[in-house]
Structures are given as structure tokens and as C-alpha cells.
């Protein structure tokens, strides 16, 4: 397959944007202004922020900068789509309106060429991590979210900080297989969606996996404020070809 011309879609996830990681932010802004505006579609597949406490935090200067940059891409004519991750699942309609993007359910299916592509964040397929799966089921309930969002913003941020530390501590003690997607869960997505390609993030283990005649592309996470630096995205072209790009291309 060839892959010339304007990309049909770009996919990116797991930037974990935060004030303490300014180089990662600058790389993302460069990606938006240099690459995303050239694509027909941009898919942000979760954990773009390190955390999102609620749409009433849109006025925060850091958050406002990111949202404005995404809005610039949308205003330039790129259709921008957002899928919740495990860190930013509280993004809501006010965020979507401010950023000029469309919120997607997980999974979401698109087509290009002869390919049917299922898009996921990836956390719902880590089914061996039963502790996380129970937590995920709880915090995705509308009643839980309404109760949480009803708390003062400062209180929510304090709770999130505690959850983040607890997550880091728990993650270090878990086996490699426990925090990765399971074959059965991936097979279920292929069956449910009728896709022959899956693209997801979450695991921070970029690769291309074969599932019989089907393919699974895992997006890289971004980290430019520590060594080794890493990051990148996938481009899907109208003929169905998929190409991985590295963050180093942004400085060339």
C-alpha cells in the first residue's frame, strides 16, 4: 500500500500532560500545529491529561492553553475526536464545546480503504487486573460521577492526587501480564466490532501485534521530560495503510 497525500486520520494517546512536564507539552503543541492540521481527522485516544478533575477546571491556565491549541486544529478544518482514558474520563460537554471536538464512546469504529478499524483506549481490555476493573466500573457510573463532580474542585483534586499515588504504588507490584490487555478481551473487540484492525493506547508498550489475519496497533506514550525520551503517533491513510511516526520528526 502507498501512503501519499493528506493523512485520513492521526491517532495519539497517553501524553499525560501536566505542568511539571513542559517539554512534553511543547512537543504536543508542535504536533498539533505541524501535523494535526494537515489531517482530515485527529483522534485523541485517552490520557491526554495526567488527570481531569472536571470541566469547571477549564479556566486553569495550563488546561486553557491545551484546549485552545486543540480548538485551533478544529477551526483549521480537522475533525477532532476525543475518547476517554483512565485519567481523563471526566471530560464532558463543556470541554468538548470549548475544544471544538466530538466525544466518542469506547470502542469506536471507522473505515478507510478496505479496513475496518476499532479504536479503544485500552484499559477496558486489561481484564486480569481485577482491582482496576472494579475501580473502573465504579467511576464510570453516572451516579458516582455526579456525586464526585458535586464536590468542590480543590477537594476533587486532593482525592485524585491520592488515587494517583495509590495507582503508582499498586502498579509497581503487578505482573507484566496483569497490566496488559488480554487476548480474550481483544478477541471480543474484534468480534463485537467486526474490525480487522484495532488501535489503542494505555499500556505504554508500542508495538504491532498479529491476531491471525488481524492487526493490533499499540500507541506509544509520551515522555520528553525524562530519559529515555519517547513519543509518537500513527497515521491512517485513505488506502488503509497505517504508518508509525516518532516524536523526533517534529524537530526535523
Automatic annotation (TrEMBL):
Subcellular location field: Cell inner membrane
Binding site for Mn(2+) 2: 47, 86, 121, 202
Protein name: UDP-2,3-diacylglucosamine hydrolase
Gene name in the database record: lpxH
Reactions the enzyme catalyzes: UDP-2-N,3-O-bis[(3R)-3-hydroxytetradecanoyl]-alpha-D-glucosamine + H2O = 2-N,3-O-bis[(3R)-3-hydroxytetradecanoyl]-alpha-D-glucosaminyl 1-phosphate + UMP + 2 H(+)
Entry superkingdom: Bacteria
Cofactor binding comment, as recorded: Binds 2 Mn(2+) ions per subunit in a binuclear metal center.
UniProt pathway annotation: Glycolipid biosynthesis; lipid IV(A) biosynthesis; lipid IV(A) from (3R)-3-hydroxytetradecanoyl-[acyl-carrier-protein] and UDP-N-acetyl-alpha-D-glucosamine: step 4/6
Entry keywords, A to Z: Cell inner membrane, Cell membrane, Hydrolase, Lipid A biosynthesis, Lipid biosynthesis, Lipid metabolism, Manganese, Membrane, Metal-binding
Family the UniProt entry places it in: Belongs to the LpxH family.
Protein's membrane topology: Peripheral membrane protein
Enzyme class, UniProt record, top EC level: hydrolase
Single GO MF descriptor: UDP-2,3-diacylglucosamine hydrolase activity
GO cellular component: cytoplasm; extrinsic component of plasma membrane
Listed GO biological process terms: lipid A biosynthetic process
Amino acid at each position: 500500500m502507498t501512503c501519499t497525500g493528506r493523512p485520513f486520520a492521526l491517532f495519539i494517546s497517553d501524553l499525560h500532560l501536566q505542568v511539571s512536564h513542559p517539554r512534553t507539552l511543547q512537543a504536543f503543541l508542535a504536533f498539533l500545529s505541524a501535523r494535526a492540521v494537515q489531517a482530515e481527522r485527529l483522534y485523541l485516544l485517552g490520557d491526554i491529561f495526567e488527570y481531569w478533575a472536571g470541566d469547571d477546571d477549564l479556566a486553569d491556565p495550563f488546561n486553557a492553553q491545551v484546549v485552545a491549541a486543540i480548538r485551533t486544529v478544529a477551526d483549521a478544518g480537522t475533525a477532532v475526536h476525543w475518547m476517554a482514558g483512565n485519567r481523563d474520563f471526566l471530560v464532558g460537554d463543556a470541554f468538548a464545546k470549548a475544544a471544538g471536538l466530538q466525544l466518542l464512546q469506547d470502542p469506536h469504529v471507522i473505515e478507510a480503504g478496505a479496513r475496518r478499524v476499532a479504536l479503544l483506549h485500552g484499559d477496558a481490555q486489561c481484564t486480569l487486573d481485577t482491582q482496576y476493573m472494579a475501580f473502573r466500573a465504579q467511576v464510570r457510573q453516572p451516579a458516582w460521577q455526579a456525586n464526585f463532580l458535586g464536590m468542590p474542585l480543590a477537594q476533587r483534586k486532593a482525592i485524585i492526587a491520592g488515587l494517583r499515588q495509590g495507582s503508582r504504588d499498586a502498579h509497581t507490584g503487578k505482573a507484566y501480564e496483569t497490566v496488559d490487555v488480554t487476548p480474550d478481551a481483544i478477541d471480543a473487540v474484534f468480534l463485537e466490532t467486526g474490525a480487522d484492525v484495532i488501535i489503542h493506547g494505555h499500556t505504554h508498550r508500542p508495538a504491532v501485534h498479529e491476531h491471525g489475519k488481524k492487526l493490533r496497533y499499540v500507541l506509544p506514550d509520551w515522555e520528553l521530560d525524562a530519559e529515555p525520551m519517547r513519543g509518537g503517533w500513527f497515521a491512517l491513510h485513505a488506502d488503509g495503510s497505517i504508518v508509525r511516526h516518532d516524536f523526533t520528526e517534529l524537530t526535523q
